[in-house]
Amino acid sequence: MPSSLYFSRVDRSLLSKCPTLARIVHAQLVKVGLIPNTYWGNRCLQLYFKSGAVIDAFRLFDDILDKNTITWNICLKGLLRNGYINHALDVFDEMPERDVVSFNTMISGLGSCGLMENAIRIHLEMQRCMIGPTEFTFSILASLVSCVRHGEQIHGNVICSGLSLSNLVVWNSLMDMYRRLGVIDYALSVFSIMEDRDVISWNSLISCCSDYGKKEVALDLFCLMREMGNQPDAYTVSTVLSVCSGLRDLCKGKKAIALCIKMGFLSNTIVSGAAIDMFSKCNRLEDSVKLFRELEKWDSVLCNSLVGSYSWHGFGEDALRLFILAMRQSVRPDKFTFSSVLSSMNVVMLDQGAQVHSLAIKLGFEQDTAVATSLMEMYFKTGLVDSAMGMFATTDEKDLFFWNTVIMGLARNNLAAESLAIFHQLLIDRALKPDRVTLMGVLVACCYAGFVNEGIQIFSSIGKTYGVNPCNEHYACIIELLCRAGMINEAIDIAKKMPFEPSSHIWEPIICASLDLGYTRLAETVADIMLGSEPESSFPYRVLIKLYEMTWRWENSVRIRYAMNKHNLKCAQGSSKIGIKSSVYIFEDDQLQIHGGYDTCATLELLSWDSDDQKLHWSEEHFY
Questions:
Q1: 376 with 406: CB under 8 angstroms?
Q2: What digits encode the pLDDT tens for the residues 118-141?
Q3: For 246, how many CA atoms within 13 A lie in the half-sphere containing its CB?
Q4: What share of the chain has pLDDT > 70, as a percent?
Q5: PPR repeat positions in this chain (predicted)?
Q6: How is the chain split into domains, by residue range?
């Protein structure tokens, strides 16, 4: 006959996966008479809930005669884990006695289901029942908070509870809470009063500064962390590498990688992926590729990093090749892989993009918002607006980035009215608030279509209505709109009233409009301003050369050309691409590039047959 020791040795991980085995164990416990024992009844009850057999668990719960608080807590946890929220609330109300575990279980379960208000209500009831919260209570509440006001209340409760400043669990939870809420000052204040700090404390503060634009401060904190004798972990150095990527600081990034090698963190795929991304963002793609090749084992994180690097540099063909090679190496693509590959597709890679789209559907990623956004972006870039709008109609969950992609895509395809209609649809929805990218897309639509009144109205309401501070791109767009409409004086007034120094994007449309209207003196004045503020731009040099040659001021033209050569500036060259089978060929201005040699020119000879049956005779020496 099995004993209680036998049941204690049963593989619970196996039993928790199968309700049938749980019933067998229950039957054996009944057979040997152990069910009346509260301990074994609780263990069997826990087993039923883990296996998802909620009905069997209810029956067993009724059979346990001597229920203690642990029995009720197991029932609460099991119901919440299996999604029976209302039943859990009923059980909680019926409990003859509640302890701190009961309240913590309810707060955690309700919060994980998104019922934050209910979780706070349970916490208030806990206070009315004079049950003191534990560190676990505060850490749960801190992880659930979604607004600063609630966070401040929890912070105040922690202080009033008298918890020690050396309690790392609670104070780290508060720091992470303020990091999520974006309140850097509060996170710093919590960090400053802590008596003890561990690597989690430092990671939270460094991440907080990194996430909200204080990247230099994040690097200073990392240095201070090491000076105070705290050893970083893999998460710390990956965050630092991401900071260096954002700052485009190759020197500090190399130092961080050297530390990774010294501490043995480079084998961690998160760290090595961050290192690949850092090299890429610092315009050292060759080092990203070299590091990737030196790593022994591939996984989705590493492949995503290099695919994203290729995409960021505009090498769509290389991103697609790596994508295919990774699948041949049995590396299953995820939503980030698809998003990066699709974002790298250019206008001559439509066939490959359609194949990637089919694969995304096959693997079940088409409904993912990030993948759907990248698919829309690809179709907009290739001019297939109907396909892009089909993605818009069939995607259920739309985030702000998704809406921004639609608005900007329609604008760049000269569908300004449709773009503005989508913008108004976003405003009606009210679930999301337009940001600076949204408003930029609307202004681009107005600019391309010449909607002057609509553009001026939206630009003037950016700050008051939408709470967005207009940046250089917004000013450049409204100025270009006014210049296209011939309202050059109004454009100059806006440029003069800008709260920051105008960039070349501001002055270029004004110069172009001045030349079109014959205002050569104004164009010369603005070009001189650009030379003083942005001497590395070739545009003002080219404008002045054209002006001086038009007015026969040859000495000034020679002087500007000399200055241009001195700064090693070249005129921008145009280029075009053509896709032939699986290859993409780039043709640049002033470059003779014959693909196919004599056969290509033989075809041109046939196409050049004139009406008198006279042929242009081509020979191979034309091409060598």
A1: yes
A2: 787 888 788 788 777 778 888 888
A3: 18
A4: 82
A5: 68-102, 167-197, 198-232, 299-333
A6: 575-623
